[in-house]
Amino acid sequence: LQLKKRCEELIQVGKETRDKFRGRPNRFKERRFTNKYKKMILDLEDELQVLNICYKRNQINPLIPWLQLFGGLGAAVITVSWWFQIIFEIFLKGLAGPYLSNVFLKLSDAFPLFGIVAYGVFAFYILICCVKVKYPCLVELCFLLYLT
Q1: What are the respective helix, strand and coil percentages of the chain, to the nearest 5?
Q2: Within 10 Å of residue 9's Cβ, how many Cβ atoms?
Q3: Angle, CA of 56, 57 and 63, to the nearest 5°
């Protein structure tokens, strides 16, 4: 938007000064203005090239930030649910009951596929989290074994 606005301003200034120099020709002032005007146009073209490079490089898609937002919120909900499960089972020694098991059973009562899919999502999520945490440790272990 700023480039468009500046471009329109440059066009307007160019038309005004063209008309001004037609009425009273002054070669020195006209040449000086023309050089400044060319420099402003070249600066504008350079900014446009940088903007085009940024757009091509990032391949901006408006859905990606929204998907990342909702994916992050979903991951946060699953993480908090696992924390509650750990707190209820380990620290409260089963006083509150199996939290996630009850959730999966209630989802299965509503529609059997919901419970199965929810269980799969939670199991896959905890698997990915464990692999992500343990992978750097595994790489370091392999590297140390290779050195010895």
Answers
A1: 90, 0, 10
A2: 12
A3: 80
